[in-house]
Amino acid sequence: MIIAENLTRRGALTGVTIDIAPGETLAVVGESGSGKTALARLLLRLDRPTSGGLPADGVHGLFPDLDPRMTIADSVAEPMRVHRRHDPAWRDELLTLVGLGPGDGRRRPADLPAPELRRAALARGLALRPGVLVLDEPVADLDPSARAELTALLRAVRERLGTAYLYLTRDVADVRQLAERVAVLYRGGIVERGPAQAVFEAPAHPYTQALLSAVPVADPRRERRRRRVPLAEERPDAPAGGCRFRHRCPKFAAELTTLQRGKCSAEAPAPRPRAGGAEAACHYASVATVW
Length: 291
Ligand code: SF4
Hints:
By secondary structure, the chain is of the alpha/beta class. Helix content is 35%, strand content 19%.
């Protein structure tokens, strides 16, 4: 199902198409400023696109901040009331589904610790039974065990309700165990996308390789032996035209011939199919092992 088609917002996103199957998790990975939040705001109709198509309905979001004056149960029920679909049985079922008890439903946000609040926000996000739930850094600011628990809960909820997730994150480690497909966003455009196995295990775009090479692995010996792909700092005066990544690209800086660099400077790379059913927008994409 296509939920965004050729979506453009001036200064933030350029021609982004997002398709997602029922019950699937698509991870959109990128640094701060890559356009993730702009994409979420457009999909949730909080902003209007400069051009491009959005779905008629069925895409909702998880908003971690609940109204401090309302009880948790009322916060979960509020979207149903607003849409005249009040259903107390479904509200209670949602609270149970996310691991909150009836006592928690009577409490207010200030009375709950952060992990439980995140569960309550998930229940509220599911209140109208959306086909797609947009999760913008849902485990950010939680400690490692709460992150793991919330990720396990997201997986269980997806299996039970068939909800698809569009999971936006800057931290690849958050989605490695959850996502079936991945799109890597850089300066408002998708530079690599495909099945999670292909993109995570054999990335072909230099930006994806740099992002993944910065994710620590648990085994200290492997960690020491790993090759880091260096990534130059973002620059506000980045050159326009051609490949928008070239001022940071390690391949452009160290591997390409003058002729090849000329092509990167002159021509914006279009997405091209590569092995494993993925595609990468790089003139000189080549698979590398980074783990
Ligand atoms: S097109 Fe050139 S500059 Fe852009 S990512 Fe590929 S190698 Fe680097």
